[in-house]
Design goal:
The chain is mainly α. Helix content is 74%, strand content 0%. The chain has 5 helices and no strands. The longest helix has 52 residues.
């Protein structure tokens, strides 16, 4: 049974198109430079990505609790605009991380389902990681006006290490999945074309 996903159909189609345009050259089988895809089934789920997601799921609640306590301790020492920025960054990071980890699990573990189900979730996971979590975490870690408490730097650094490794692993897994998806699409076209020719030959 396929895992439920919060992504609306229009967003799923957009993420599939984004992944295909990023990893697959728009070549036809009639072109002499077309890629040769292997239609045979292969395991597409990424074990390194799944391991990092597993540990990240257990680490994130501790990070969230510790960061909330440290933000409370230093809140009155910060300028008013940094109070607003840090609270906003903490809330966005906390809310987006749950969706990001869920999309990563769904996109990486739907190996036994139709392949097209995997691509939008993993693409969404990659975009959330790169466009939201990474800039906010770098801001918390690198900005000198944040007033880093002793525990914050190692906790943010470990979170950043998880994030960077997950981005690399998700990029590689998504590239493999989109190529396999293209192989299935082209193979289906060849099979349908072969059946059509046989039907025409039979009627002739």
């Amino acid at each position: 049974m396929a895992a439920l996903t919060p992504l609306p159909p229009s967003l799923r189609r957009g993420l599939v198109a984004f992944s295909s345009s990023l990893f697959i050259n728009n070549k036809t089988w009639d072109s002499g430079t077309a890629h040769t895809y292997q239609p045979a089934h292969e395991v597409l789920s990424s074990l390194p990505l799944q391991m990092m997601l597993y540990f990240n799921v257990y680490y994130f609640p501790f990070w969230c609790l510790a960061e909330g306590i440290m933000l409370h301790l230093k809140y009155h020492l910060l300028p008013w605009h940094y109070q607003f920025l840090l609270v906003t960054a903490f809330l966005i990071l906390s809310l987006a991380e749950g969706s990001r980890l869920y999309l990563g699990y769904v996109g990486n573990l739907q190996e036994k389902q139709v392949l097209i189900l995997q691509v939008p979730e993993l693409a969404g996971f990659l975009l959330l990681s790169f466009l939201i979590q990474l800039p906010l975490l770098l801001f918390l870690l690198m900005d000198s006006q944040v007033i880093h408490l002793p525990l914050e730097v190692p906790m943010h650094s470990l979170f950043l290490a998880f994030l960077l490794l997950e981005i690399v692993a998700a990029f590689l897994a998504l590239r493999t999945m989109t190529k396999q998806l293209a192989a299935q699409f082209y193979l289906r076209q060849l099979q349908e074309g072969g059946r059509g020719q046989l039907e025409l030959g039979g009627t002739g």
